[in-house]
Amino acid sequence: DQYGNMIESSSNLKQRTNQSKRTVQLPSCLLPNMSKVNATNTSSSNAFRPGIVLLASYPRSGNTLLRTLLERTTSIVTGSDTRPDRTLSKSLAMQYDLVGEGLVGKATDAGMNKQKKQSSSARLKSHFQTAYDPSLSIVKTHFPERKGWKPVNSSRVLLLIRNPYDSIDSYWNLCCTNTHTTSLDESVYKKYANKFESLARHEIQIWVDFHYYWLDLCEKEGVPLLVVRYEDLVLDPESEMQRVIAFLMEEGDDKSLLDSFWKWRIRHALGKSDNPDSQSTTGNTSNLGSYQPRSSNGGILSIGKTLRKDRYSKSTLTHMHDVAATVEANRNKNTSKFANIPSINKTKKNQSYETILQKFGYDI
Question: What is the DSSP string of 125-192?
């Protein structure tokens, strides 16, 4: 009943499920003068200036896990463009030690100009209440799924992707409980099946648009991009973290070029033996993140759990695949390149294109 009442009154869920069309704008996290740029102009000279690496992900795709592993490996705080006074942000900062919530790195020109117009006392107050910290090198963003509270100067993008079936289900739990860790009882799914299905049918469009947004923008602007699948991070965290650190060290994603020091740091962050030849188990990351995930066993049991519990109807799963196919058909049949994206399900030779679900290995 507690979460049922929250579901009935949740303005967030109503807004998400009642939207007929989703508008994607230019990222405020990349362009300092967001209000002066229209949605079709993505070639601004201000985009992707040297600076922060953006950790972009659709909500509930594992960015907290990756941020925690990055902080343990590099001993550097990661930031977030989410307002620090929000309930979930405060929870991450105060309960789960992600103290960089709200920090966005070095101030942009727009931010500095705004502060110059303020009085000295207001400027001092603004300085301590905003989050411009030049020591940051990685900032989390969910843009364009939602707009960040401060602009960020960025030069590279780390795109973290998780299968839509689990990420959308996890997002449903987050919306209903307003927590990162509390899980809804199965009875809630049954009672509010129509609301869950409605949310899923709406969110799949956002999920598809979100990932193509970053793939296309990075390709058009010539911005270095590394794609990491949550499932690979869970099943083989050492190998994936080597790819990530190599990317941060500007070695592309060639982990063979990574210095032995960083390989040791990664093993240390993962709680493995210092001996690189030791056989340590992989596939269970339940104790590696800042908080205990909803699937407490971690690893492979956390992958596809929503499908194993039959939470989606057959018609909704069909709808998800239809949305992906429609989007792909409208993209002029693969105008973008995805050379570095892992794919499990290979496209059939007689198929003219593959959907984004197939590109990432999520076609079922």
Answer: HHHHHS-B-TT--EEEE-TTTS--SS---EEEEEEEE--HHHHHHHHHHHHHHSSSS----HHHHHHT
Mutual orientation of helices 164-177 and 2-9 as an angle, nearest 10°?
Answer: 100
- The Cα–Cα gap between 113 and 118 comes to 9
Distance (Å, rounded) from C-alpha 156 to C-alpha 45? 15
Distance of alpha carbon 79 from alpha carbon 99, whole angstroms: 8
5 alpha-carbon distance from chain centroid: 29
Q: What is the pLDDT of residues 273-303, one digit of tens each?
A: 766 555 554 545 555 655 455 555 556 777 8
Poorest-pLDDT segment among 184-198, 234-248, 339-353: 339-353
Which pLDDT value is given to residue 316?
A: 97
Task: Compute the CA torsion angle 46, 48, 52, 56 (nearest 10 deg).
Answer: 120
What beta strand segments (E) does the chain contain? 52-57, 79-80, 138-141, 154-161, 225-229
Longest dimension (CA), the chain: 67
State residue 299 phi and psi, 5-degree precision. Answer: 55, -145
Cα dihedral across residues 104, 106, 110, 114: positive or negative:
positive
